[in-house]
Amino acid sequence: MQYDPIKRTLGKFFNRSTTFRRIFYTLLDILLLRAWHIQRELRRWKSTAPAKAHILDAGSGFGQYSYFMSKFSETYCILGIDVKADQVGECNEFFRSLGKQHVMFKVDDLTTFRTDGCFDLVLCVDVMEHIEEDVTVLRNYHASLKPGGMLLISTPSDQGGSDVHHEGESSFIEEHVRDGYNMQEIKDKCKLAGFSRVKAHYSYGIPGQLSWKISMKYPLLMLNASKLFFILLPFYYLVVMPVALVLNFIDSHTAHRSGTGLVVLAWK
User: Fold this and answer.
1) What is the pLDDT of residue 166?
2) What is the dotted CATH code of the domain comprising 4-267?
3) Between the CA atoms of 243, 249, 253 and 259, what dihedral angle is there, to the nearest 10 degrees?
């Protein structure tokens, strides 16, 4: 399924006003299980972060994680990088309207973007599965971090990530260049890129997989079939939302022996 056209439609709809965009971010935070996992890790990082931290949001997309981190402190300097000029422009417009001068976005390519020893944190959410030259990108992240800086990645795993469960199946998201990472594989690639310490754990265990199906997969399939389903979505989510919230909470507060997602932390 092509995900980008639906993302563009959603972005255009919710970019009508700052209020709409804030509602959009809230919905993403609630519905996207990866946001639950990433935000927990970001809060842990914040507890020991420098007072004037520099953060790279690598593959910033709609900018929802930059928005979340911007509320930590106005002394943080946050840079969002993305290849999509329309999303970068919309993010800059939105953050300027809020007066958040410590956050900016620019168009760039993560396979070439590198600013040596600049950042305390590099955040990379659902990006690595879109990039063929993943080790090159990891090396760029490593070079761009200050000594002791941390890389935080969320990406599909090979345990059914991208909704691929059997050999020969195609990815649910057509834009993915790989179906998912083996945990040891991505840890080894981080170390190959120069990171001294790497930790990883599974996300999207059984509760998360069920939540993803009812809150994301089925609505996306409906929207991909016809844009008329936008009219039905609010009623659908009135029924589904309470169940998805409970499942997301359970998944984000449980250690999983396997899962369709991976959360990776690596330190320079």
Assistant:
1) 44
2) 3.40.50.150
3) 50
Q: Which residues, other chains included, contact 262 with Cβ-Cβ below 8 Å and sequence gap of 6+?
A: 153, 154, 155, 156, 157, 161, 180, 181, 183, 186, 200, 201, 202, 203
Q: Which residue has the tokens 């417009």?
A: 93
Q: How far is CA 5 from CA 10, 49, 95, in A?
A: 9, 37, 24
Cα–Cα distances (Å) from 232 to 26, 202, 221, 226, 259, in that order, read 20, 33, 13, 11, 30
Could you tell me the CA-to-CA distances from 256 to 12, 37, 155, 188, 263 in Å, in that order? 36, 12, 15, 21, 11
CA distance 161 to 21: 28
Model pTM score: 0.89
Q: Is the pLDDT of residue 169 over 50?
A: no
How do the domains of the chain map onto residue ranges?
4-267
- Confidence band of 97 (pLDDT split at 50, 70, 90): very high
Q: Is the pLDDT of residue 228 over 80?
A: no
How many residues does the structure list for the chain? 268
How many Cβ atoms from other residues are within 10 Å of residue 44's Cβ? 12
